Amino acid sequence: MSRILLLSLALLLASCATTKQNSNAAAAKMPFVWENANLYFLLTDRFNNGNPANDLNFGRTDQTAPLRGFMGGDLAGITKKIEEGYFDKLGVTALWFTPVVEQIHGSTDEGTGVTYGFHGYWAKDWTALDPNFGTEKDLMKLIETAHQHGIRVVLDVVINHTGPVTTADPVWPADWVRTEPACTYKNYETTTACTLVKNLPDIRTESNKAVELPPFLVEKWKAEGRYEKEMAELEAFFVRTGYPRAAKYYIIKWLTDYIRKYGADGFRCDTAKHLEESVWADLRKEADLAFADWKKANPKKVLDANPFYMVGEVYFYNINNGRNYDFGDKKVDYFNNGFSSLINFGIKGDATADYETLFAKYSKLLQKQLAGKTVLNYMTSHDDGEPFDKMRTKPFETGTKLLLCPGGAQIYYGDETARPLTFEGAQGDANLRTFMNWDDVKNNAVRNGVNVREVLAHWQKLGQFRRAHPAVGAGVHEMLSAKPYVFKRTYEQGKRTDIVIVGLDQPKGPKSIDLRGLYPEGMMLTDYYSGSKIKVTGGKATLNTPFEIVLLGK
Predict the structure, then answer these.
(1) Is residue 17 part of a domain?
(2) In the prediction, which pLDDT does 29 show?
(3) CA 359, CA 478: separation in Å to the nearest integer?
(4) Residue 498 sits in which domain range?
């Protein structure tokens, strides 16, 4: 190879490296805030199979009902997609995946057919990972890889209940759990001191009574050669905290270990309204300590100064009700009990309104009643049988309303690829849990008249815009024009101000947006939807694109 060619190649590589460094530096200047999170939620078992060798464990070979058995997705598969840049292209800033702790070994049949704990919510041992999902090394690699891509990791945690009782999984002792009555949801007590469904033992979280470890767990730990280690850690925890050795505090210790060991950035808290809110406050206290310990031990791996994040699944919580959830006989402010955010079950209905009605209302609620806190908006989830777009006929509108709405955004895996939410023969929430439709993307499939790749591109553009600009989710909303529709979002943090301008339902082809008083003359802006660079001229942004959407920012 000639010296000239070698020199040219070296200059090209140096230029690429400089461009990447400048890009990273620019991104670093944009502060990440949870109020603007673009959080991707997936079922660990249903996303991507990175290690087929771990697909079968504990003799889980029973024939299951449709979509109620393990399908092979694992932590290694998630990591692979991080490494491939899938989440970067989608503008994702945080990942939430279903619990990966060891699940019950047996199967159940409670009227829906034979079912295994593929979803992760049926814990058998909070201190171990289920081998179907991977190893602790796999979890460590996932979190470290995510952090290298500027992506936070939110672990899904359960305190409310154990897994069901099966022939392979004994019931926990009576001082740990209740097996009746079933919840009737008439008031606070009949929502908290009860079992969610038949055969789902409820942890006695209201109790401060000291309890001994379940005999089966002692036997299990001894067989695995870690009994002494686990007992020593428990002793140290209870001595340090002074907590009574009650069931809830064992679980809090076990859950916060994953922060202290691996640097998880947040918790999504399952069935939050089904246990006393004080338990969440205690979990948050211990989580904050664990997060601080991890940061101190790993200073070079710390992403930023953001505190630990906790988002609660208070089923049916609605942003329109402000800070409180009403049980009928009692109102509870979960934001005042450890939570940074709550999942907003109200957006599905609110999103049927026009853009301005939705965006203006949410901005006002977040800036006033919920100031200092936020909500996590979603259009689809793993257990909501009536999502915003059940038949996937309007995936573009779904993405626009979710990713441009004030508040945090939760993408449910496959929202961005129009993954089907119905499956022949499946019952209930199993329909929502099909395997990720990678083949549709690969094969450039068309569903319901829309091209899957075009849907994905739409979500990617909106996601990258959100990631680049905290004003999108955390800023103050102001309409600038009704027709064509244009709005502004402004976010201020210290001396830094972020302003974005969005135009929706714009004419295809030539278009002009009035920017007087918003950006100085001559400033260069980016339209994140078309990728065009626009110079502010005559107080306007003039562009010619084939799209009806304009996403302007520095």
Answers:
(1) no
(2) 67
(3) 9
(4) 475-554
Asked if the structure places residue 26 within a domain, the reply is no
Coil, helix or strand at residue 405: coil
Residues 439/450, Cβ–Cβ less than 8 Å: no
Contact 417, 456 (CB under 8 A): yes
CATH code, 45 = 3.20.20.80
Q: How many Å apart are CA 546 and CA 529, to the nearest integer?
A: 10
Q: How many CB atoms lie within 10 A of CB 536?
A: 20
At residue 57 the predicted structure's pLDDT band, cuts being 50, 70 and 90, is: very high
Question: Do 64 and 164 have their domain in common?
Answer: yes
Indicate the average pLDDT of the chain: 94
Indicate if the pLDDT at residue 4 is higher than 80: no
3-state DSSP percent of the chain in helix, strand and coil, to 5 = 35, 20, 45
CA torsion, points 326, 328, 329, 332, in degrees to nearest 10?
A: -10
Verify that 417 and 533 share a domain, yes or no: no
Task: Report, as an integer, the average pLDDT of 451-474.
Answer: 98
Residue 104 sits at φ, ψ, to 5 deg, of -55, 150
Tell me the longest C-alpha to C-alpha distance in the chain: 82
Q: Residues of 81-96 as b/e, b for ≥16 C-beta within 10 angstroms?
A: bbeeebbbbbbbbbbb
* Confidence check: pLDDT of 26 > 80: no
DSSP letter at 173?
Answer: P
Kindly give, in sequence order, each residue whose CB lies less than 8 Å from that of residue 53, ignoring residues fewer than 6 positions away: none
Residues 453 and 488 in one domain: no
Split at pLDDT 50, 70, 90, the class of 343 is: very high
Cis peptide before 484 (omega within 30 of 0): yes
Residue 217 within a domain: yes
Give CA–CA dist 449/267, Å, rounded.
Answer: 38
Confidence tier at 205 by pLDDT (50, 70, 90): very high
Amino acid in the structure at residue 516: R
Q: Is residue 117 part of a domain?
A: yes
Q: What would the pLDDT profile of 346-388 be if each residue is shown by its tens digit?
A: 999 999 999 999 999 999 999 999 999 999 999 999 999 999 9
The b-or-e profile of 376-385 (16+ CB within 10 A means b, else e) is bbbbbbbebe
Q: Which residues are catalytic?
A: 270, 313
